[in-house]
Design brief:
homotrimer, alpha/beta, 11-stranded parallel β-sheet, 10-stranded parallel β-sheet, 5 helices, 40 strands, 27% strand
Chain lengths: 349, 349, 349
């Protein structure tokens, strides 16, 4: 499913300079190597400039400095990858968001819900009392919106998404299938040998332009809301515990987890399978490598990592066992240094 | 959504001493710092006693030893946090469990299913043949109960929960959205280059007072049942493999995983993202730090951990590479010690 | 739910030799210890031969070399575990796949969808435009198939599965509940402080005989498809990012994750909670221990691992802190060696 534009039209829409034949028709996107005529590609890094000469693309998005090397028409941009994102989005609009407005006959909608007339409610969606769904938002098949939940404009909740009661979702938010927003935080008081449930009375507030991956779970706050700020991008199967705050434009890769009450700053880049324990502060702009485990606050922005290298299992087993002796080894090195110093003193004496 | 009680009523309901004006009206809960009149708060730790003087709470739940320092009416308890849990639950009952009893017209219920007249079956729930749902239990929108599954009394299965056939769920069990109970265990026999599926013929048995987080997956047993004992609390996105047993009142934080046939004891506290391999025994009362990886049985209760510290990436990279030399380093320390001993002997000779 | 066969019938069906009374009736399977008459069990490893003498099983599947030690009738096989898998599957066929063919009245099926007359479409399933579902395939309650998706023959999609548009699923594929196939890959272009979404225009192609666990998420490719080859087995809660390829007959245990564009070879065995970063190659036949973290390509097949041992927390804390000194320790050992050599030279001089 794609639309068709002339290169000149694209240059006009995005306000960028055009090099070459503006009449070139563009109907899709592709990478430089596999692009066919009719496709527009992009070059984001001059290092790969050599790919230009052989490309069969109809046009290329690139920086001014690479334009001379381009054998086909081009759109010029300081940020070719960002312009590519915009062109690709224009050429390949989300098909679900293009569906006719209205509520599918099989959806179950509470009378008190307010669904904008331009919204698209898919088959077998369930929308509970006093929910509000904004203009042009899409609620996919089997998705469930709990009481009083608010969904802004131009959102897309895919299939089988669950949003618990009283959650607030901004505009232009994408939520993928099986994601859960507003489940109870994990809070219990010990009494004797049992655990008593602490009611989780906050909700979840999600800003604008957030994307939430498949199978993500974001727990509601204990007393106040768990907060996901504007522009946050969460990959699949991330866990966000109660009372967490994730700062604007932070991106987290899949399977990461954030324990309760931790506040992550803005513009952080967090790799896959990262774990962050509870009640921490993570500074704005922090970068965490995949698999990092964070057990103390990070007060200074920077790039952090933890973990050990992959090794052939036989070799790993030996080093693995030695880890238990690490403190002992350090002490023995200190002793050796002291003894050696004494010996040297003796020899020099 | 909350109810209103006088402080004297609360003291009566929970059988605890009251200090101050029993007529104080309580309609909600809050922490000491943000509580407004009408809210009850709690002080669980004398260390934070200084917060009492400035609180605007209508009343506070606290220990006898802290009562003198409390400027507002109070409920006295040996375990203020547990009493808080009970009061908060009374003031803020689960709204879903308060819904009118009955089966939503859009739910699909097999004729042979037995649904208690006081149960609440949400829209678009699917209840298969010979299922039993007990008194006052709530089955949320889009949830699916497979053939012959039994759900006890006062349970809450949130939206889009899947329970496969023949599983048994006790009473007062909470299951959050997108959780899966009774999926096939991961069992295959190699034949040539292919894997043959081993039918998973057991089911899952879940005790009373269990809570299961969003996106949790609990596999059915191979021949017998996977077992979750009474009072177990599982946070979001936990994986429980086939034939596992989790002992009573054990709590596991999010994203932990337990491989096949491992038996976890009672009263264990397992941090987030912990991994436990298969066929192990974990002693009662074991505590595992977040991110611990367990590859051998734990026969003695205690506190265990594994892993390496977070470091600035440049520093981490050097230490990471050295890990591969750890066994070599240990041997060289041993050699240095031997040589040094020889030298000292020579010098003393 | 099980069928009944005589041992002679089973020998005939699977073409294997029979020892003892072929009239023995078999109605189920069990392990050697708990088997009752009427059950068939198996012995896959001569090491456990001693269990044979006490078994009450009606019959046992075993290797020729163990037949003499078996007090009950037997089926003889070079690969007893594989034969057990086949016999168990015959005796306990999947009940869902035995359901009467047809489309449940509550399912929502697009007019343009093509559902084979022998397929089984469960209650409240949603099947979008131009979807194709092959012969005898089962689509469970609440499952959603996006536009133009193709499902082959003899598949089973359990409840609440989501397949996005344009995905291709082979034959004899099993997908467990809450799994998501075809969600958007995690691709964004930075522009100023924001992230721009890169449309994910590929889909997911899944081969034959694949099994996909509960809560698994497989993202669609950016321009081409994410590919899961024939015979791959994915346990619960695995994440497969965009543009990944997983080679035939590779098995991955629960909670593992594969980042974008990584290609995993054929016949790999990947433990639980393994993480693999993006843009890597993993050689055919690679074995990765549970919890391994892979940040470089593996060009040579073999067994690999990473990580540190579990320790009592107090001991761990000391070794954990020393890890930060590892590079320093290595340098000091080198210095000690050099100094000691000098001293020895001096002494020998």
């Amino acid at each position: 499913v794609s639309k068709s534009y002339s290169l000149a039209e694209l240059a006009g829409i995005f306000g960028v300079p055009l090099a070459g034949d503006g009449g070139t028709r563009i109907t899709g996107v592709a990478d430089l190597k596999s692009a066919m005529p009719g496709c527009i590609s992009f070059l984001n890094n001059s290092r790969y400039k050599s790919l230009l000469s052989a490309t069969r693309a109809g046009a290329v998005i690139l920086a001014q400095q690479d334009a001379a090397a381009c054998p086909v028409p081009a759109l010029i941009s300081d940020n070719p990858y960002a312009l590519y994102a915009k062109v690709a989005t224009l050429l390949h609009p989300d098909e679900d968001l293009q569906s006719p407005a209205g509520i599918h006959a099989s959806a179950v909608i509470a009378e008190s819900a307010h669904i904008d007339a331009t919204a698209i409610i898919g088959p077998l969606a369930v929308i509970d009392e006093n929910v509000r769904v904004g203009a042009r938002s899409y609620i996919g098949p089997g998705s469930v919106l709990g009481k009083r939940t608010v969904v802004g404009e131009d959102c897309k909740l895919a299939a089988n998404v669950t949003v618990y009661h009283d959650c607030k979702i901004g505009s232009r938010v994408i939520v993928h299938a099986s994601a859960v927003i507003g489940s109870d935080g994990f809070g219990f008081a010990p009494e004797g040998e049992a655990w008593l449930k602490i009611p989780q009375l906050g909700a979840v507030t999600i800003g604008d332009d957030v994307e939430i991956g498949a199978g993500v779970a974001i727990d509601r706050g204990t007393l106040n809301d768990t907060i996901i700020e504007n522009g946050v991008k969460l990959d699949n199967q991330i866990h966000v515990a109660h009372n967490v705050r994730i700062g604007a434009h932070t991106a987290m890769a899949a399977q990461s987890g954030v324990a309760g009450s931790t506040h992550i700053g803005r513009h952080c880049a967090i790799g896959g399978a990262v774990g962050i324990v509870g009640h921490l502060q993570i500074a704005d702009g922090t970068r965490l490598h995949a698999f990092a485990t964070v057990s103390q606050s990070i007060m200074e922005s920077g790039e952090y990592a933890s973990g050990t290298p992959l090794e052939p299992a036989a070799q790993w087993r030996r080093n693995w066992a030695r880890f238990k002796q690490l403190d002992d080894m350090a002490k023995r090195i200190r002793q050796l240094e002291a003894k050696l110093e004494n010996l040297e003193d003796d020899n020099n004496a």
